[in-house]
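Reopening this ticket.

The earlier resolution said the output was attached, but the attachment link was broken on my side. Pasting everything inline this time so it's all in one place.
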Amino acid sequence: MFDPTAPIEPATRLDRNQTAAALTARGFKMAHSTLATLASRGGGPPFTKFGPHVAYQWGDALTWAQRRTSAPVILASQLANGPKERSSDQETNKAGSGRHAHAAA
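Inline output:
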């Protein structure tokens, strides 16, 4: 019987249910149906097929999940999708681009 909380060798091949359970047990909440959707749409961990059966190499699946995780932050605005502050150099370049474009017209 598969124990998703037990240590797993990186080269171990897991089916979709086992992969989802092992990721969830390590703090990456994942449903097997999400893995299936990602397999058809793209963006999920690499997998292989043997006939109708899908297999994920544990090391690849874990690396995939870790790479999708942000660095620790103390404010949501620090995340990549949050607001970005513009440096004074960027402001100068932006203003300069506008003047040059206008002067050339």
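Reporter confirms the inline version is readable. The longest strand covers residues 53-57. The two ends are 73 Å apart (CA to CA).
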